[in-house]
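On clarity, I found the account of how folds are encoded harder to follow than it need be. An entry of this sort, consisting of the sequence and the corresponding backbone structure tokens, reads as follows:
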Amino acid sequence: MFSNKKWRKGTDTACIFIHAGAGYHSVANEITHLQACSDAANMGMKVLRGGGSAVEGVELALKCLEDREITNAGYGSNLAMDGVVECDAVIVDHNGRSGGAGAVAQIKNPISLARLLLDFSATQLSLRRVPPNLLVGQGATDFAWEHGMKIMPFESLVSPAAKERWTRWSQDLRAAERKEMEATNAHYGLSPAHSDINAGHCQPALPADRPRRHYTDSLSQALYNDAQPISPPQSDEPPLLDSPPSSGSSRQYAYNGQQHTLPNANEEYTDPDGPPYVPTRPSGHHFANSTQSDAHTYSAELQGVTQPSRVTQPMHSEFDDDSVYEHDHGYVSPAMQRRLWGERSSDSGGARSPDGVPVPPGMVPPSLATNYNLDHSLLAEMSNNQQYPPLAPSLAPSAMEEDLITDTVGAIAIDVYGNIACGASSGGIGMKHRGRIGPAALVGIGAHVIPTAMDEDRTSVATVTSGTGEHMGTTLAASTCSDRVFFSHRATSTGAMEVVNEDEAIKGFIENDFMGHPSVKNSQSAGAIGVLSVKRIEDGAMLFFAHNTDSFALASMSSDDRTPSVVMSRNHGSGSIAQGGKFYKFKRRKS
């Protein structure tokens, strides 16, 4: 699995950088999110320390995140309109080659399918055919099946929390559509039949799509009567089951005149065939963003809330004295080295850090940026005994009692050969239409790599993004941000480029290229975005992150670190931009 290349003579330092999505991470679940980031960084670093490639490190790190219910990727992701988990994933290597899968169902780890497509795109096909590097929908599932990947039952990827959210949202959507239809009919003096409101349920499913339709109808039955056993409502279609399901380990269904067996959620399912699904009912409504937990949490208004003292201790560096990079000051003195993470908010005033170091204008106050060096024993204790100080009335639990994580998780890795790679994975927005492809499947939008330049610094850049996918697609978010960081440019109001440092370049990207784009300004959807970008030069790797959402969960680690450094970056809100960064200096092996 891993590469057997000889190590480079110049450097043997590997790095990995993780983010768990932009949005709002509740205080109560903060430890869980940061633990997921820490575990993903550790998993990726194990591969990189063993000589694995950057692509392998990214894949293993994202698989770790996909297997966590707390993230909106893989298991536990948001459900589409028909109650099915459809995921997106992309992976990009150091040459800029990519593999991606979009709107793919029944795949436990979409990032592994993206990796499979990346490797397949480098093969030579007969008759000079061009191998694909992006597949979507049923075609992607078929490709995975043909190449030996496990095809899971629909229900095996649905977590209890995701199912509860889908049920609640479906009820809200039905009520809203019914109210809208009644208002329309009253306006025009019509008296609609009951079948008009539920017209979509009368549409027959195509034979090959009946397993998915049967699963959706079974899931939807709870919306009609929670007290009744879950069974599909009556329809005009031919019976799907030739006999009632047994209580054993599987159930049978009829498909093209033959008997097939659906295994339980923990068994393998190897019949992915089926044409596009006929929606159970038409809808013009969307639910914008995702939610990730149903636990009682605290309000998003987090200013002034102090975390437990045992967790807020500053991180300590194991690097050289010049290992920390502060954007406004270049390489900092030893007195400032305790601030490995520097977070900024575009509208905050001057302040001082806990160790007395002046905080540059615009930096987020320490109370809004929680830094950790995670220890598993400490995490276990904290997760069982979380005690927070009393909240002021304005900070009491409010309507925002859930995590609101917008879309994608991502990873960037640099291997011991100096190559950089990145990847992204996502379950998409909640209640999306079947077949909706998000930014996490698209190179240049959810993830992008600028290959190594032939300059003296041998510069390369990788960027992964998270946020409102449709806006990120319009603005080519990952590609545009990578260009700005690579060239250290910022677009002016006249369209010209001015030379700035990377910190200002990333801020300018969000303000001008993203939020200032006409399609975003004139849209009724929120322009949310979080960016994680790494610029690799000859002497080290510079990490930059920025977000205009309430929070952004991140982790970073080098092969010289014992444990990952993680941070929950929190914003002031009101459209402000929080930023931060870190510099990893490469240590040279003596020849």
